[in-house]
Design a protein that fits this description.
The structure holds two protein chains of two kinds. Chain A is 8% helix and 40% strand. By secondary structure, chain A is mainly beta. Chain A has one domain: CheA-289, Domain 4 (OB fold (Dihydrolipoamide Acetyltransferase, E2P), Beta Barrel), CATH 2.40.50. In chain A, 31% of the residues are buried. The mean pLDDT of chain A is 81. By secondary structure, chain B is an alpha+beta fold. Chain B has seven domains: 1-130, Four Helix Bundle (Hemerythrin (Met), subunit A), CATH 1.20.120.160; 131-326, no CATH class; 335-391, Orthogonal Bundle (Helix Hairpins); 393-575, 2-Layer Sandwich (Heat Shock Protein 90), CATH 3.30.565.10; 600-729, Beta Barrel (OB fold (Dihydrolipoamide Acetyltransferase, E2P)), CATH 2.40.50; 742-879, OB fold (Dihydrolipoamide Acetyltransferase, E2P) (Beta Barrel), CATH 2.40.50; 884-1011, 3-Layer(aba) Sandwich (Rossmann fold). In chain B, 41% of the residues lie in helices and 24% in strands. In chain B, helix 2 (35-55) runs antiparallel to helix 3 (58-75) and helix 3 packs antiparallel against helix 4 (83-101). The relative contact order of chain B is 0.04. The model of chain B is unreliable at 125-142, 210-218, 264-328, 530-542, 721-734 and 736-743 (pLDDT under 50). Classes of the chains: A mainly beta, B alpha+beta. The A-B interface holds A 34, 36-42, 45, 48-50, 53-55, 57, 59, 101-105, 161 and B 347, 350, 591, 637-639, 683-684, 686-689, 691-692, 694-695, 698, 700, 704-708.
Chain lengths: 166, 1019
C-alpha cells in the first residue's frame, strides 16, 4: 500500500527475545512506571497508571505471551499504544492492517530496543522456526536479522480479550 | 437564497417561542391563567409572525397572524378562553411546529382548517378584514402609497394605534452582507431591536433586484422592515441601528392616515383602544399617560423591565432602553465547547488536589504559599461549580411538555386527569436532562394509559372522577429525585407474576420466590407489558426495560412502589452531573478505593458493641433492630495486607462498615480505613478491567495515583449475595435470630375458610398464594380446578374433608394457597388471608383433632387451628399421598428425628411413629448429639437447616465418629437449594429429600435398609 515497502518497527526485549511492533501504533514510551495494581484482574494485567490525567491499563506482555517469570529481566518499560480512534484519525496509520483497541493500553516490556526499518519482503509469514514457546496466533511474522531473530507481534490478537491465555 | 445559517436561527428561535407558548395555552384552560401568560403567547406568535414574514414563509406568518389576532382579543379581555379555543390554539401550534421544522416547504402544509377555526372565535367585524393575503401584492386600497410602502402588508390595527399616539412610522433597509453578516448580527436581532423601540409591522426580502445568478452572488440582498416607533427623528434610528441615513425612511403620518381613512374595515371597533387606554392609564396612575405610549407595549415592558418603565417612555432616552435590553442577554455557546470546558475544569480540580497535597509537605518553607494555595483552592472549586452550572438545565424544559401529553391522552382515552408538576426549577446536567426526556415521557404516558382509571370506574371505587398524576423533582442528598405518582389502580404483584410466567419472561419458581415489592420490578423485564390491549398510547412492552436501562445508563436508579387501588409511585434517582461524583475514599490492605456517596447511607465503626455475628455461615451486624449482611472488601477482592497494613479477608472485627444501598437492598462493606471524602472525576474502565465486574470506573487521586471506583452491585454479586432473595434472606436471618433465642418460633400464615374459624399453615410449606375469582374455577366432574401458569391445579375446599364449618355461600373473591414440594400439587381454597405471624407455637393436640388438623393453639388470644396439609391431602387423594402399607419390618427399629420446627416435628413424628418402633424427637443438633452419645438408634432423620449447627454438620460429625459412622442419615429440607445437594453428598448423607413426601420417604427408607442391614450403632 505504501509506496515504499519499508516500514519502521519499534523493537523491545522480553528476556532475551527481540520483538517488534509497527511504530505507527506506538504513542509514547514511559519509564519509571508508577503502577497501581488492581485486584481480581487477569494475571496478564500488570495494573493501571496515570499518564497526564489519562488512565492507561498496562498489559504484562510476558505474561500475556505465557513466558515464564524467571526469563524476565530489566525493570520494565511501558510502550503506550495509540487507541483505535487515534489510528483512524491519523492518515499515516490508516492504511495499517493492524488495529489496537478503543482503550488506552500500554505494554509492559523488559527493555526497549532500536527502531529498525523492515522491508516487507524480508518478513517470513509462516514462522516455523519461531520459538515454539510462543503461541502462533500472536505472531505476525519473523525477520532474520544478522545476529538475532525479530518476532513481529500480531497486536490485534495480543490485545484481544477473547483470546485465551493457556 | 437566504442564508441557511439564518434560517437555522429562525427555526431555533421559533421553536423556543413555541415551547414557551404551549404551556401558557394549556394554562389558559385552568382558572389560574393570568395576563402575563397570555402576553407570552401573544409575544411568541407575534415574533414568529414577524420573522417568518421577512424570510417569506407565508404560510407560517399567515397562521401566526391569525393566532396573534385572537390572542390580542384575549389579552384585551374581549374574549375569554375556553377549552375549545385552547384545542384550536394547540392544533395551530402543532401546525406551526410542523412548518417551522421545515420552513422551506411550509407552503405544502394545509392550514386552512386552523385558520378557519381560529377565525370563528374572532368577532365578525374582524373576520372579514384580514390583511391582504400574499406578499408582493399591495393591500387593496384606493390611496396611492409611496413606493417604499407598496410591498408591505399593512396592519391597520397597529398603524391606527400608532397614529393615535403620535408615533412615527419608518422603513429601514438592511443589507444582508453589510449590515447583518459583517456586523455579526442576525435579522432577528434587528427585529428584536425594533420590537423594543415600537411595533413591528412587516418585513420582506427584496428579490426583485436580482436578475440572474451572478447577481444573486454578488448583490447584497436587501431586507426591508416597516415599523412604528416612539422615536422622534430619523437620526435616532440611524444611531440605534447603526445604519446610514440613506437606509432609513420616515413615512409621513399623513400618508398613513390617508390610507387608514380609505380602509373602512379598520380592525378594531372605535372605543376599544380608548377603553383599554383608560384602563392602563388608571393602572399607571402617573403622568406618563400623556406621552402617547402605546398601552399594549406598556404591559409587555412591565414584564420585562418593570423599574425602567418611565425611562422607556421618554422618547429621548433610547440609550437607556438599549442598555436594559442588553443586561439580560445571553450568548449561545456550542455544547462541545462546554464539554471541553468541563473536562478542563475537571483536570484543574485534580491538579489543585495534587498541589494541595504537595503544599502540605512544603508549605512552611515558602512564605505566603499557604494563602495562595488556599485562594487557588477556593477559586478552583468555584470555577468548577460555575462551569458545571453552565451545563445545568432546569427540568422545566422537559416537564413542560407533559401537561400537553396528559391533556391529549386524557381526551383520547376519555379520562379526566390532572397533572401536578413540582420542581421544574431543579437543574441537572444538560446531557442528563436530554436523556431523561424519553423515559419520562414513557412513564407519564403509562400513568395516563394504565394507571388512571376511567372516571366512572373511579367513582365506583369512591375516588374523585379526576385522576391525579404528580410529577415532582427535588434535591435529595446530592442527587435529584424525580417521582411520578398517580392515584390510579396500582399494580397487582400477583398479576404481574402470573403475566410474567405466561409470557415466559420468568419461571414459575423464580416468580414465586419474589417478594411483592420485587414482583413490581417485573415490569422492567424485557418483553413485558401489562396492558391487556396494545394501544397506540403506551408501548408494546419494549418501554419499561428501556426506561430502566436508560436511567441506569445515566448512573441513576429506578424504583417502583404500588398499592392495588391506591396508586403507583415510580422514583428515579439521578446524579447531578455525570463526570464528577462525590465519593468516599477508603482503604483496605494498603490500597485505596472510591465508593460513590450515592450508595453510601452511613458508616459504622466496628468494635465495642458493634461486633459482627455469624448466622448460618455468613456474617451479619445487628444495626438498630435489623440485620445487615456483611461483606469484607478484602475478602471479595482476594487481597491480602502487606506488612504493617491493615485489613484483610479475615479481619472482621476491626475497621469500618459502609452501609450501602443498591436498589433498596442493603449490605455492609467492611474496609479497614476511611481516608477522605472527595469529588472525583470518573474515568471509564478499559475492557480488561470491566471484565472483572467489581469496578464501575477509575479515578486519579490528588497524589496522582490511580484508584478504582468500587461497583457496589458488582461486589455484592461477587460475594454471591443474592439480592433477589434478600428480603427473604433478611426475613430468614431475622427468623434465625429469633430462633436462637427461642428455637421453636415459626412463621404461620393465618387465614379463614369461611365464618370465624381461624386456620394457620406453616409459611414455609406454601409456595405461593394466588388471588382468584370464583368464576376462574373450572369444574370437571366433582373436582374443581384452576388454570395456573399453563397447568391445571386441583383445588380442595377444606370443609369437604375436615370437621369444620361449611360455608353457606362462596364469595367471589378467593385465595388459593399452593403448597410447595409435593408429588402432586393441590391448592387449598381460602376466603380471607388474615396475617402472617412469627410466634412460638404451643401446640395442643388433644382439644381439637380430626382429619387435616394438627392441633390448636392460641395466637394473640384467638384460637387457631393448625392445618396438617399432609393428612388433608391424604384424604383428598389417598393414592398419591398415602403409602400403600406400612411395612412391618421396621417395627423393631429406633429412629431419631431432629427438627426445630414444631409443625414439621409433629407431622414427621406422626408418620415415623407409624413406621418405626420408637421415635425420639429433638429440636437441634446439640440435643441430637447428646441423644446419640447416650442412646442407640437405627436411623437419623434430620432437618438440614437447624438453628446453630446445621444438619449437614451433624451428619459430618456422625460420619467422623467411630461409633456412628455407618448410621443411616437422612436429610430433610423445606427449601430447595442446589447447595444442599452438594453438601449432602459431601457429608455422605444416605439420602437428602424435600419435606415432606411420605411415599417417597418410605421408599427411601426401604432402599437404605435394603442396602444396609439395620443395626444399632453400638459396635
Amino acid at each position: 500500500m505504501t509506496p515504499s515497502s519499508q516500514q519502521q518497527y519499534m523493537t523491545f526485549y522480553l528476556g532475551g527475545d527481540l520483538f517488534g511492533i509497527n511504530i505507527l501504533l506506538v504513542r509514547e514510551i514511559i519509564q519509571n512506571l508508577d503502577l497501581t495494581t488492581v485486584a481480581k484482574v487477569p494475571p496478564y494485567i500488570a495494573g493501571v497508571l496515570n499518564l497526564r490525567g489519562q488512565v492507561v491499563t498496562v498489559v504484562d506482555l510476558a505474561r500475556r505471551l505465557s513466558f515464564d517469570d524467571n526469563e524476565r529481566g530489566g525493570l520494565g518499560n511501558c510502550i503506550v499504544l495509540k487507541t483505535s480512534s487515534e489510528l483512524e484519525n491519523n492518515p499515516t496509520s490508516v492504511s495499517l492492517n493492524e488495529r489496537t483497541i478503543a482503550d488506552k493500553v500500554g505494554l509492559l516490556v523488559d527493555r526497549i530496543g532500536d527502531v529498525l526499518p523492515i522491508d516487507a519482503k524480508s518478513i517470513i509469514q509462516t514462522p516455523n522456526q519461531s520459538d515454539n514457546r510462543l503461541d502462533k496466533r500472536y505472531v505476525r511474522g519473523v525477520v532474520r536479522l544478522s545476529d538475532q531473530l525479530l518476532i513481529l507481534l500480531n497486536l490485534s490478537e495480543v490485545l484481544n480479550t477473547e483470546t485465551r491465555v493457556e | 437564497m437566504v442564508d441557511n445559517e439564518l434560517i437555522g436561527i429562525f427555526i431555533q428561535e421559533s421553536k423556543e417561542h413555541l415551547e414557551a407558548i404551549e404551556p401558557e395555552i394549556l394554562a389558559m384552560e385552568s382558572a389560574s391563567h393570568d395576563s402575563e401568560g397570555v402576553n407570552t403567547i401573544f409575544r411568541g406568535v407575534h415574533s414568529i409572525k414577524g420573522s417568518s414574514g421577512f424570510f417569506g414563509f407565508d404560510q407560517i406568518s399567515k397562521l401566526s397572524h391569525v393566532m396573534e389576532n385572537l390572542m390580542a382579543l384575549v389579552r384585551d379581555g374581549q374574549l375569554s378562553p375556553n377549552s375549545e379555543m385552547v384545542s384550536v390554539l394547540l392544533a395551530s401550534t402543532d401546525k406551526l411546529k410542523l412548518m417551522i421544522d421545515d420552513p422551506q416547504h411550509c407552503a405544502e402544509v394545509a392550514i386552512e382548517d386552523e385558520v378557519k377555526q381560529l377565525n370563528t372565535f374572532l368577532p365578525a367585524a374582524k373576520g372579514g378584514t384580514k390583511p391582504a393575503q400574499g406578499k408582493g401584492e399591495p393591500a387593496p386600497k384606493q390611496v396611492k402609497l409611496p413606493d417604499s410602502l407598496k410591498r408591505f402588508r399593512l396592519d391597520p390595527y397597529i398603524l391606527k394605534n400608532a397614529m393615535q399616539h403620535g408615533h412615527l412610522v419608518f422603513v429601514i433597509r438592511l443589507f444582508m452582507n453589510k449590515d447583518v453578516k459583517e456586523k455579526g448580527r442576525t435579522p432577528y436581532d434587528y427585529f428584536k431591536e425594533i420590537e423594543s423601540l415600537g411595533e413591528f409591522v412587516d418585513a420582506y426580502f427584496d428579490f426583485s433586484s436580482i436578475s440572474g445568478l451572478d447577481d444573486a452572488l454578488s448583490t447584497d440582498l436587501v431586507c426591508s422592515f416597516l415599523f412604528t416607533t416612539v422615536m422622534g427623528s430619523p437620526d435616532m434610528i440611524t444611531s440605534v441601528f447603526d445604519i446610514p441615513a440613506s437606509q432609513v425612511e420616515e413615512i409621513e403620518a399623513g400618508v398613513i392616515k390617508e390610507w387608514l381613512g380609505t380602509n373602512p374595515g379598520v380592525q378594531t371597533p372605535e372605543g376599544r383602544d380608548a377603553a383599554v387606554f383608560l384602563e392602563v392609564v388608571e393602572d399607571e396612575s402617573g403622568p406618563a399617560s400623556d406621552t402617547g405610549h402605546e398601552p399594549d407595549k406598556v404591559e409587555e415592558e412591565d414584564h420585562l423591565a418593570p423599574t425602567d418603565h418611565l425611562a422607556v417612555k421618554a422618547s429621548s432616552a433610547p440609550a437607556a432602553r438599549m442598555k436594559v435590553k442588553r443586561a439580560d442577554e445571553t450568548i449561545r455557546v456550542n455544547v462541545s465547547l462546554l464539554d471541553s470546558l468541563m473536562n478542563l475544569a475537571g483536570e484543574m480540580v485534580l491538579s489543585r488536589n495534587q498541589l494541595i497535597r504537595i503544599a502540605e509537605n512544603h508549605g512552611q518553607e515558602i512564605a505566603g504559599l499557604q494563602s495562595i494555595i488556599q485562594n487557588i483552592n477556593l477559586v478552583t472549586s468555584d470555577m468548577h461549580e460555575k462551569v458545571m452550572q453552565t451545563r445545568l438545565q432546569a427540568l422545566g424544559i422537559i416537564f413542560g411538555k407533559f401537561t400537553r401529553i396528559i391533556r391529549d391522552l386524557a381526551m383520547k382515552l376519555g379520562k379526566e386527569i390532572i397533572l401536578d408538576i413540582e420542581g421544574e426549577d431543579v437543574e441537572l446536567d444538560k446531557s442528563i436532562v436530554e436523556a431523561l426526556s424519553d423515559p419520562l415521557t414513557h412513564l407519564i404516558r403509562n400513568c395516563a394509559d394504565h394507571g388512571i382509571e376511567l372516571p366512572e370506574e373511579r367513582e365506583r371505587m369512591g375516588k374523585p372522577r379526576e385522576g391525579r398524576v404528580r410529577l415532582t423533582a427535588k434535591h435529595v442528598g446530592g442527587q435529584v429525585l424525580i417521582e411520578i405518582i398517580d392515584d390510579g389502580r396500582g399494580m397487582n404483584p400477583e398479576k404481574l407474576r402470573q403475566k410474567a410466567i405466561e409470557k415466559g419472561v420468568l419461571k414459575a419458581e423464580e416468580a414465586a420466590k419474589m417478594s411483592d415489592r420485587q414482583a413490581l420490578t417485573i415490569i422492567f423485564l424485557p418483553g413485558f407489558s401489562t396492558a391487556e390491549k396494545v394501544s397506540d398510547v403506551s408501548g408494546r412492552g419494549v418501554g419499561m426495560d428501556v426506561v430502566r436501562t436508560n436511567i441506569e445508563g445515566l448512573g441513576g436508579f429506578v424504583d417502583i412502589d404500588s398499592e392495588v387501588g391506591v396508586g403507583t409511585r415510580i422514583s428515579l434517582r439521578l446524579p447531578l452531573t455525570l463526570a464528577i461524583i462525590p465519593a468516599m475514599i477508603v482503604g483496605s490492605c494498603g490500597r485505596r478505593f472510591a465508593v460513590p456517596q450515592v450508595n453510601l447511607e452511613e458508616v459504622v465503626r466496628l468494635g465495642g458493641k458493634n461486633k459482627p455475628e455469624i448466622i448460618r455461615g455468613s456474617r451479619v451486624l445487628r444495626l438498630r433492630d435489623s440485620l445487615l449482611t456483611l461483606i469484607n472488601l478484602a475478602d471479595v477482592l482476594e487481597i491480602a495486607p502487606q506488612e504493617g497494613e491493615r485489613g484483610g479477608a479475615t479481619d472482621w472485627e476491626d475497621g469500618y462498615v459502609l452501609v450501602l444501598n443498591v436498589d433498596n437492598n442493603q449490605y455492609g462493606l467492611i474496609v479497614s480505613e476511611l481516608l477522605d471524602s472527595e469529588e472525583i472525576a470518573v474515568k471509564p474502565l478499559s475492557v480488561y478491567l470491566k471484565q472483572v465486574g467489581c469496578y464501575s470506573g477509575v479515578t486519579i487521586m490528588g497524589d496522582g495515583k490511580v484508584a478504582m471506583i468500587v461497583d457496589i452491585q458488582g461486589i455484592a454479586t461477587m460475594a454471591r449475595l443474592k439480592f433477589a432473595e434478600n428480603e427473604i434472606n433478611e426475613q430468614s436471618a431475622l427468623d434465625l435470630a429469633n430462633q436462637l433465642r427461642s428455637s421453636d418460633s415459626e412463621s404461620l400464615l393465618l387465614f379463614r375458610n369461611e365464618g370465624l374459624e381461624l386456620f394457620a399453615i406453616n409459611l414455609s410449606t406454601v409456595a405461593r398464594i394466588e388471588r382468584i375469582k370464583a368464576s376462574d374455577i373450572e369444574h370437571i366432574g366433582k373436582g374443581e380446578y384452576l388454570k395456573l401458569g399453563g397447568r391445571s391445579l386441583r383445588l380442595v375446599r377444606m370443609h369437604d374433608y375436615m370437621p369444620i364449618a361449611k360455608p353457606e355461600q362462596t364469595p367471589q373473591d378467593l385465595y388459593v394457597l399452593v403448597p410447595k414440594l409435593l408429588a402432586k400439587p393441590i391448592g387449598i381454597v381460602a376466603t380471607q388471608i388474615v396475617d402472617t405471624v412469627q410466634t412460638v407455637v404451643d401446640l395442643d393436640r388433644e382439644t381439637i383433632s380430626g382429619v387435616g388438623i394438627l392441633g390448636s393453639t392460641f395466637i394473640n388470644n384467638a384460637l387457631v387451628l393448625l392445618v396438617d396439609i399432609y393428612s388433608l391431602f391424604e384424604s383428598v387423594d389417598p393414592e398419591v399421598f398415602r403409602p400403600a402399607a406400612y411395612p412391618e419390618r421396621f417395627k423393631q427399629l429406633r429412629a431419631l428425628l431432629v427438627d426445630n420446627n414444631v409443625f414439621f416435628r409433629t407431622v414427621e413424628g406422626d408418620f415415623l411413629r407409624r413406621l418405626f418402633g420408637e421415635v425420639v424427637d429433638v429440636r437441634n443438633a446439640a440435643q441430637a448429639w447428646e441423644k446419640l452419645s447416650e442412646e442407640n438408634f437405627h436411623v437419623v432423620i434430620s432437618d438440614v437447616e437447624l438453628p446453630g449447627t446445621s444438619g449437614f454438620d451433624l451428619c459430618g460429625k456422625v460420619r467422623h465418629s467411630e461409633r456412628h459412622k455407618h448410621l443411616p442419615f437422612i436429610g430433610f429440607s423445606a427449601r430447595q437449594d442446589p447447595n444442599h445437594e452438594v453438601l449432602a453428598k459431601e457429608t455422605m448423607m444416605d439420602a437428602y429429600q424435600m419435606k415432606f413426601d411420605k411415599v417417597k420417604l418410605l421408599r427411601l427408607i426401604e432402599s437404605i435398609f435394603d442396602r444396609k442391614t439395620p443395626r444399632l450403632t453400638q459396635s
